[in-house]
Amino acid sequence: MKLTVKKWNGNTPFTGQPPEIADTCRNTGRAGVDIIYFMNTINFFTVTILMAGMAALTVSCDTASDDEPFTGAANEIRLMTLNPGHFHAALVQKNMLEVVHPTVYIYAPGGADLDLHMERIKAFNSRSENPTSWESEIYTGPDYLDRMLEEQPGNVMVTAGNNRLKTEYIKQAVDNGIHVLSDKPMAVDSEGWNLLTEAFDIAEERDVLLYDIMTERYEITSMLQRELAKRENLFGRLSTGSPDEPAIVKESVHHLFKTVSGQTLRRPPWYFDVDQQGEGIVDVTTHLVDLSMWAAFPDEIIDHREDVRMLEADRWPTVLTKEQFSRITGMDSFPDYLQDRLVDGELHYYSNGEMTYTLKGHHARVSVQWNYEAPPGSGDTHFSVLKGSRVDLVIRQGPEQDFRSTLYVEPKENSDMSEIETAVITVVRDLQDRFPGLDHEATENGWKLLIPGEFYRGHEAHFGKVAETYFSYLAGGSLPEWEVPNMITKYYITTRARELAL
Length: 502
Description:
Layout: E1 2-4, E2 21-24, E3 34-37, H1 44-52, E4 58-60, E5 79-82, H2 87-91, E6 103-108, H3 112-126, E7 135-140, H4 144-151, E8 156-159, H5 163-175, E9 179-182, H6 190-206, E10 210-212, H7 220-229, H8 232-235, E11 248-257, E12 259-260, E13 263-264, H9 274-277, H10 285-296, E14 308-320, H11 322-329, E15 342-343, E16 346-359, E17 362-373, E18 381-387, E19 391-396, E20 406-411, H12 417-431, E21 439-443, E22 446-450, H13 459-476, H14 483-501
Parallel strand pairs: 1-4, 5-6, 5-8, 6-7, 8-9, 9-10, 11-17
Antiparallel strand pairs: 2-3, 11-18, 12-13, 14-16, 15-16, 16-17, 18-19, 19-20, 20-22, 21-22
Helix pairs in contact: 5-6, 6-14, 7-10, 10-14
């Protein structure tokens, strides 16, 4: 016979009307499920008969088995959000996708982080333009992780929050056969990196996909820089560079006080505790290290044991007054766990870092700077260079560009300018099918790409693109072969840089 069971919330009293049933359906990657029968009016003999007949039951649960392959069908992805403490957890839900079920299951300890997360989801649901219609099923309690692993009402866990806990969350999830879409960073120190590599090994054994949210791959100038670097007739070959003049440069400037989705971004106070959030050298640098590999060595495996050599690293603090801290967090004073980070009453927050390393013999430099607030009319900025034997591909985002990311093609000295210009024209024409309206114009040092405004979708919109890509990988059953080794290498670089800088 077929028995359909409902999940018991652990609180509903039994009435004594048999059969009252609660399930412990678990997607553990094994065939079958465990069932517990709860009855008020049963004896040992009855229990014996029930258990003896268990093999004859076919059980249907709300949660599908992990053995069922993804197909890309509507509502197939069921999200579980674990302990959302960063606004990136909400941005995964900024827009709805047909493949994602509208009910999202949230497991958290409760408190201010969860309240802020729910405010963001509510704002998405109530906005006037293209509102979402998410429904949230929330469990709060100190056992939130165990509860999620036990119940598993979804098949993909989203985690974006306290980085001290995140790597363990990831390992526990994949160990229980759950696919994971994680915000960066997935590891903030060498101990975490070791645990993360274990998680990737387990994910491979369990046939689940573990993936981090690399939004900067969907920024238009980064995409075009990567495409132009592939064209040897234009770019030539990647230069070797040197520690002082690296061939790959990735720099970014960010701001602690900012606006997201039209609202002042409220950061939790633990965000400023490097023991919980991680230092800047292992946080935003994750994106930059990722881009250094993704753009310069597209679709290539970068092995941390053979292809990477760490050279040097440094870190330094952003200093915040109590008033600035209060404006960002809403707290009137610094919490106890930050008291030992205060110097003359001001917080020294180690959010800045720089590292130099080599990738397959080519020198790279990555740096990140966090300021308190952007000057009027500006915002976060990105600077990037890929140096080729024929041209340099340079991304600038300063006042001269009206703080809009802009890609330049700058020929080397003694280059044949007419030959390079012909290559630019050819490449731009070839890319117009993917990027309609793309054009170029001459500058004093070469050419500037003219990118139509609709391709500047903004940081928040990139989360949806990452999710779409990840869900397509689920439907295909695997990640590209270079993704996992390169994720391992990426976090090797950031965590080793932290060790060098201490």
